[in-house]
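User: Show me a protein chain along with its predicted structure.
Assistant: Here is one chain, sequence first, then structure tokens.
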Amino acid sequence: MDPVTVGYLSLIAIAIAIYAGLHVAIALAGISLFSVWAITGKLKLATSFVALAATDSIAEYTFGVVPLFVLMGLAVSESGLGRDTFAIIARGLQRWRAGLSVATVLSNAVFAAITGVSIASAAVFSKVAVPEMVRAGTSRSIAVGVVAGSSVLGMLIPPSLLLILFAILTDSSVGDLFIGGIGPGLLLAFAYIAYLSILGFLRPDLFNMSREFESSDHVPTRAMLPILGLAATVLSGIYLGFFTPTEAGAVGAAAALIIGVAMRRIGRREGWQIAVQTGHITAAVSFLIIGASIYSRMLAFSGLPAAITQAAIDTGIGPTAFLLVFAAILIVLGTVLDSSSIMLVTVPLAFPITQEMGIDIVHFGLITVLAVEVGLLTPPLGLSVFVVHATLRDTGITLGEVFRGAIPFALIMAASLIALIFYPQIATGLLGR
């Protein structure tokens, strides 16, 4: 069978398998095996191809960054530093109309500089911020929407697991992507703050601040020093070249554990939980990376990326138009698939096209991450929305309330995405490109 035809058929098969509920990594690896078999006509050659791709994909020093940053994020979460950050910022903004909502966005931005996982932010601030906002008079829909919307900052503001995954898929610089994520992350955070501030002025009834925020009284301002110091150490070390992203993950993980133990918030039981969760998450991510590597090599073997690249160029579509179409496809896929799955399937196909068109890899990477993150807030599979709802299920908050509250933030994300497409300097400016 013609290799390119096999490549096209494999895409259809993978889409059917994923929509049918098959694990993404299994779908990618299994269908890649059958595709290579169909191209070569030799099963033994196909199995050797898959085995070699699986071994090579994960046996690299670079992949050590995944468990290290996961460990750091879980240690910070278990230490309660997110709770302390929110309490201190909220106390400073309690006189500001919509102040607690703005404090949630700012706290998520600080927390994102450590965790790199949107779901972790959604879970932490659902427990910490939503009860305080509701108690102080904020509309329940606004409160849950703020948490769901601002949790996506965890995948934009470095370190970010999705940016690490993109770097692995495209063999690009993790450090450059981290630097590129600062601009879009800050843009989105400030857009959220502007929206909430304007809404607080126009609709003060949604932010009835007649009751004081009191739970932060016992948290001294100096309690923010550990998380700020940790973020500064990790990020400055990467940006100034003191250590690689993998070394930064090791330094950050060690520092986060030391801080948690010193604050007496991490003991043997908590340490074991952190270790087990780190193992689970790392195994899941590594399995996805193996599946994606096998899939990417199969595509290259079939010649499909080159064929699609040539077809895209022949249409005469320009870089900006291509990025708009690609972002729209990612947003649509985000309504039914999780972020990692979308990137694993689409990036190996789209990346060669962007290289041929001269699109900056950091610009493309941030557009990809921001577009797939919109899917975290959109039905039917808005993962951040479901995490917020699951965390607050006992409070009587419905899934519909969370989705309604998240809609304005999804629209703001879409607007930020369009701005990023037309103004690549948002992502590349700090890199001097």
